[in-house]
Design a protein that fits this description.
- The chain is of the alpha+beta class and 250 residues long.
- Among the domains are: 84 residues, no CATH class; 81 residues, Arc Repressor Mutant, subunit A (Orthogonal Bundle).
- The protein has twelve helices and eight strands.
- The strands form three sheets. Strands 3-5-4 form a three-stranded antiparallel sheet. It has a three-stranded antiparallel sheet with strand order 6-8-7. A two-stranded antiparallel sheet has the order 1-2.
- The longest helix has 15 residues.
Length: 250
């Protein structure tokens, strides 16, 4: 059952919605916004013929390279997709972008329940699926983002493996595309404020700058560190980086 859920998760989370091409007023508005479900103001729901679902570029890469989601890298990729502010799962975003401030990286089950209760009210079932997902071998146990032993939970930060960096870079660019699609240059603080990417990764300043150096060395971004907060200028196209995700795996 969890195996089927895992495949379904891939299909759902990596699907994008586009309005049927027969609706001309909608087609142009959505051509460059593949993950948007918002209808244009001049198009009513009754005038829509239907929605079309299509696999995203990220989904195409994963379907080709790791269709059964067996690689730890793939499970981390999908974890990061779940944690997105836009288009992710709210409970995942809340826990992994904000939880470190209230819980740290080690906490117990009761503390996790209190954290979600403070945010969502008395919905004690919320933490269960999240914890089980990362502890079942038929699900995302290879990523092991949350591990549980004797009601004690530990959060794992994103692995600092060079072979994983292309996937992190692709994820960051996808987040940039979604949050600031027309902006080529952002400060690190602005990018983090829009996406909470590095909080979700669980990295501290040293790890962040190590990754930024890698991005710069690979020609993905250009970094200006002479103005206080580093300024990032996008150079590489998202699709180009997506195609490199699995290149460095042994």
């Amino acid at each position: 059952m969890l195996y089927r859920l895992r495949l379904r998760l891939l299909k759902i989370d990596l699907l994008r919605s586009d309005i049927d091409k027969n609706t001309r007023t909608s087609e142009q508005h959505h051509a460059d916004a593949p993950s948007s479900l918002t209808l244009p103001s001049n198009v009513t729901k009754s005038r829509q013929s239907r929605w079309h679902l299509a696999v995203t570029p990220l989904g195409e890469v994963i379907s080709r390279e790791d269709p059964f989601i067996n690689e730890e890298l793939t499970q981390w990729l999908l974890h990061l997709q779940l944690c997105r502010l836009q288009g992710g799962a709210e409970a995942w975003y809340t826990l992994f972008s904000e939880g470190h401030l209230a819980l740290g990286n080690e906490f117990d089950s009761e503390g996790l329940k209190r954290f979600f209760t403070a945010r969502y009210g008395n919905r004690t079932s919320v933490p269960g699926p999240i914890v089980r997902m990362y502890n079942d071998r038929a699900s995302f146990a290879k990523a092991a983002v949350l591990s549980e032993q004797s009601h004690k939970l530990s959060r794992r930060t994103a692995p600092l493996q060079g072979s994983f960096y292309p996937s992190y870079a692709a994820t960051l660019l996808l987040e940039w595309d979604m949050s600031s699609p027309q902006i080529q240059q952002l400060t690190l603080e602005e990018l983090e404020g829009h996406t909470r990417f590095f909080s979700i990764m669980g990295w501290k300043e040293k790890e962040i700058h190590q990754f930024l150096d890698w991005l710069s060395d690979r020609g993905i971004v250009k970094i200006n560190r002479q103005t206080g907060s580093p300024v990032l200028l996008r150079i590489a196209r998202t699709q180009v980086v997506l195609e490199t995700i699995y290149n460095d795996l042994a």
